[in-house]
Structures are given as C-alpha cells and as structure tokens.
C-alpha cells in the first residue's frame, strides 16, 4: 500500500502490459477486471465472495447512487466503502453514459446535462463539477470525468461535437478534482469510430497529465474489429506510464484481444447479467445451462476451478434452479462467471510475466473453440 496513487509497469510482452496500481486502500493487479457494483452491490453476490474470486477493485455508478440513496446520504453514513463493507479500491464512473441511455428526458448544453430520473421522474442537473462532487461524497478512489457518450453508428459531426464537449468537460473536472492525495481522476477518450477524432481526443487529454486514461464510447454496438481498430489508433498516443482503462468491455475474447493491444483495466456487467439469465462462461466456451442436455448431468461446470459454484454444484441442479426461476440459480452462475473472469485475468498476468502471452491467448481460444463437454 502507499499514500499516493502510483502505477508501476513491471513487464511488457509485445503489446500486453503487466503492472500494478498502488493506492491507500490496496493494490490493483493489472491487467484487471473490475466487477460492476452499480448501486453499491455486485448483483446477486456477497462482496466477500467477490473479493474471494480475486477482485482487487469494484465499480460504483454515480448516476444511480446520486438518485438512490443520494450521495449526500452516503457521505453522512461514512462513505460508500463503509456502507457496503468493501475496504478495497472503488472506481466510480461519471454517470454520463447512464444519463444518455436511461433518462427519458434530457437537455444537454455546455454547462452539463439536465435530466429526468428514470426512478421517479424528478429533475436533476449534472455538470462536470457536480459529477466530481458526487464522486467525492461517495468516497471513490478513482473518479471519472463527465463525458458525452454517443451511441454508434452516428453522424461524424455529432461524434466530433460530443468529443470536443467531453474535452472541455475534462478540463473542468480536473479543476474540480484538484489535488486529492491517494486518489485519481481519469480522463475519457471519445471520438466514436473515427480514427482522427480518437487521436485528437487522446492527444488533448494527454496534455492534461491525468493519473490515468479511459477509452470510452466503445462496446456500444459496433463490431469487435472496429473496437480493436480504435484501440490500435488511440493507445500509441496515450502516455506509456499511465494506466489505460477500456470501459464497458466485455466478453472474454474482447478482453484477451484488448490486453494484446495494451489495455490494463476492464469492467463489464456481462458476467453477472449473463449469470442471472442462465449463461455461464467457462474454459470451454459459453454454456447455456437452461438447455435440456444439462437436466440429468451431475458433472459440475468446471471441476478444475477453485470456485465452489463452479466445482461443487452439478449442472443438473443449476439447470433445475434456473428453469424454476429460483434466485439461487442466478447467484451461483454469477459467482461462477466472476470467478472465471478473475481466473482468466490471473492466467493473463502469469503469461505476461513468463513472456508467453501470445501462446496463452492461442491456447485459451483453442479451448473455447473445442466447445462444451459431450452430453452424458
């Protein structure tokens, strides 16, 4: 642990990077996958379990927490860490994406965005300064700038307008954040699927000398090859000595290919959301536990796993729970999926340390391609 925010790049293997972020609340081993705890909970999981899967950091969401229970209430209760019983680092996103995607009514201008709550219809205003204030009240360790995320496909002029707005907001967020020892604010690169705009955004943000940089506005419906092209365009412009965070990504394959291009941090609701709907990610690819083939299969999802949900419960039982709409089914599959994601990240880090990431990536993809176990 350290009193300051510090990123150390320990080793590179072609484009892949092995490192760690040191903060007062603990170390984050990179490449890292950050489970999403939108409203102060990683859905269907105890946070003790989340920690045991290998998570060093989780996310909270500014938009949702400002509406319920409100940032001011969280602050009065001692901050988000104390409220949810998580002593380790928390990253909060700025709320910008949720404002754009969830609120039924919104008006955006230079000052920020005015929007109607999806919860009760109440009216709120989010400025760059207010976003940073909320994240401070929550007690977040890594805070994100307010940005405007445009869904793809979009008109180039609209993408450019949003990118330029996000840059101006980044400067205001930096001023509002000020100096907070032991904490960090990250900027967010925008620019849609237009390489020249991505480069302009990354160059301008790099000039702000922030503690870290995120790649936003991807995983919003564009094909994987477009996402990877934008990474290849953007990452060479960002400082080598700062962490790079790809927001909202993704599938295990997305993660492998993005690590290969130099990404250090990921987050996604996919493992828990998929688990709640009966889909498991395994070392042999995706498994839909709802399928009838599992109804009398007493084998576990993964007998090699250290996770009890993966190793100790039969497919037959998981199938029964999911088909019966029992909450325990979603809980066990979410637990399994988060454990698999963290095992994947552990394997990635080990492979980079040993200088064999390309081999690890090929072996992992080959195993996925084999498909699930033969039916009993």
Automatic annotation (TrEMBL):
Keyword line: Glycosyltransferase, Queuosine biosynthesis, Transferase, tRNA processing
RNA binding: region residues: 248-254, 272-276
Subunit structure: Homodimer. Within each dimer, one monomer is responsible for RNA recognition and catalysis, while the other monomer binds to the replacement base PreQ1.
UniProt function note: Catalyzes the base-exchange of a guanine (G) residue with the queuine precursor 7-aminomethyl-7-deazaguanine (PreQ1) at position 34 (anticodon wobble position) in tRNAs with GU(N) anticodons (tRNA-Asp, -Asn, -His and -Tyr). Catalysis occurs through a double-displacement mechanism. The nucleophile active site attacks the C1' of nucleotide 34 to detach the guanine base from the RNA, forming a covalent enzyme-RNA intermediate. The proton acceptor active site deprotonates the incoming PreQ1, allowing a nucleophilic attack on the C1' of the ribose to form the product.
GO cellular component: cytosol
Family as reported in the entry's similarity comment: Belongs to the queuine tRNA-ribosyltransferase family.
Domain tRNA-guanine(15) transglycosylase-like positions: 15-368
SUPFAM superfamilies listed in its UniProt record: tRNA-guanine transglycosylase
Active site residues per record: 93 (proton acceptor), 267 (nucleophile)
GO molecular function: tRNA-guanosine(34) queuine transglycosylase activity
Pathway: tRNA modification; tRNA-queuosine biosynthesis
Transmembrane segments: none
Superkingdom of origin: Bacteria
Entry's Gene Ontology BP terms: tRNA queuosine(34) biosynthetic process
Residues holding substrate: 93-97, 147, 190, 217
Protein name: Queuine tRNA-ribosyltransferase
Gene: tgt
Catalytic activity of the protein: 7-aminomethyl-7-carbaguanine + guanosine(34) in tRNA = 7-aminomethyl-7-carbaguanosine(34) in tRNA + guanine
Gene3D superfamilies reported for this sequence: Queuine tRNA-ribosyltransferase-like (3.20.20.105)
Pfam families per the UniProt record, alphabetical: TGT
E.C. numbers: 2.4.2.29
């Amino acid at each position: 642990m350290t009193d300051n925010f510090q990123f150390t790049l320990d080793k590179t293997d072609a484009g892949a990077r092995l490192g760690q972020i040191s903060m007062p609340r603990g170390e984050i081993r990179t490449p890292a996958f950050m489970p999403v705890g939108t409203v102060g909970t990683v859905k269907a999981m105890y946070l003790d379990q989340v920690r045991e899967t290998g998570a060093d950091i989780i996310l909270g969401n500014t938009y949702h927490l400002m509406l319920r229970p409100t940032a001011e209430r969280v602050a009065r209760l001692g901050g988000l860490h104390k409220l949810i019983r998580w002593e380790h680092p928390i990253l909060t996103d700025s709320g910008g994406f949720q404002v754009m995607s969830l609120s039924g009514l919104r008006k955006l201008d230079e000052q920020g965005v005015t929007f109607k709550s999806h919860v009760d219809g109440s009216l709120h205003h989010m400025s760059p300064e207010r976003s940073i204030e909320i994240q401070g009240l929550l007690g977040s360790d890594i805070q994100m700038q307010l940005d405007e995320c445009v869904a793809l496909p979009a008109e180039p002029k609209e993408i450019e307008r949003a990118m330029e707005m996000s840059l101006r907001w980044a400067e205001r967020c930096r001023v509002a954040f000020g100096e907070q020892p032991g904490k960090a604010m990250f900027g967010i690169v925008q620019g849609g699927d237009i390489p020249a705009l991505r480069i302009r955004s990354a160059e301008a943000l790099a000039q702000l000398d922030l503690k870290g940089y995120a790649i936003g506005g991807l995983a919003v419906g564009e094909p994987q090859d477009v996402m990877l092209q934008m990474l290849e365009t953007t990452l060479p412009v960002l400082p080598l000595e700062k962490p790079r965070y790809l927001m909202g990504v993704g599938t295990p394959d997305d993660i492998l290919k993005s690590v290969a291009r130099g990404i250090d941090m990921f987050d996604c609701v996919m493992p828990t959301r998929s688990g709640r709907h009966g889909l498991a990610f395994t070392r042999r690819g995706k498994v839909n536990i709802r399928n009838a083939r599992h109804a009398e299969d007493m084998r576990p999802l993964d007998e090699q796993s250290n996770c009890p949900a993966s190793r100790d419960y039969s497919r037959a039982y998981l199938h029964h729970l999911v088909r019966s709409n029992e909450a325990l089914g979603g809980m066990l599959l979410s637990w399994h999926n988060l454990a698999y994601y963290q095992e994947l990240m552990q394997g990635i880090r080990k492979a980079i340390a040993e200088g064999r990431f390309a081999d690890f990536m090929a072996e992992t993809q080959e195993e996925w391609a084999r498909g699930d176990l033969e039916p009993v």
